[in-house]
Amino acid sequence: MRAPIGDFPDARPAPEALELLPEPVSAAVAAWSGPVPADQLVFVDSDPAVADTADFVAAHGSDLLSASANCVVVAGRRGGETRLAACVVPSAARVDVNGTVRRHLGVRKASFAPHEVAVGESGMEYGGITPVGLPADWPVLLDAAVVDLPWVLLGSGRRRGKLIVPGKALLQIAGAEVIEGLGR
């Protein structure tokens, strides 16, 4: 199979790469349903040494930069309660944590979740977190620009490998909603 974007020697439908995905991502891909079928989710294998966006784009194609998105975990606090959420924005954008995210979650304070919380609660590797397979009770906030892309390059849950999915497929994730002004 040829990946829909980028240059990858190993690309395959994600349902055929379940063994290369961490358990929560593998389970989500195996249970995937909706208007965008699971075989349109593409896994591309890659070297974890080039997992960061700039290095990845240099290794696999400049067309990936405009199609890359980052998924970051945010912790919002109000009273004694902490609420986790995922934010998916174009890789060239920054998440508006203290404005848009804080207001949307209805919390007094919001910040990027600590490394150990993001990894421990998601079951994924830091630097590879993807919205596919996150806990179902987490809000998954999507920047409209990501949803509008024909193809989006995301983490695979590990630093090794990436997922390439139609932008509209992200709307099939539990808790997903489009948030205007999420990335800036």
Automatic annotation (TrEMBL):
InterPro entries assigned to the protein according to its UniProt record, in alphabetical order: YbaK/aa-tRNA-synt-asso_dom_sf (IPR036754), YbaK/aa-tRNA-synth-assoc-dom (IPR007214)
A GO MF term: aminoacyl-tRNA deacylase activity
Domain YbaK/aminoacyl-tRNA synthetase-associated as annotated: residue spans: 52-171
Pfam families: tRNA_edit (PF04073)
Domain of life: Bacteria
Gene3D superfamilies in alphabetical order: YbaK/aminoacyl-tRNA synthetase-associated domain (3.90.960.10)
Protein name as catalogued: YbaK/aminoacyl-tRNA synthetase-associated domain-containing protein
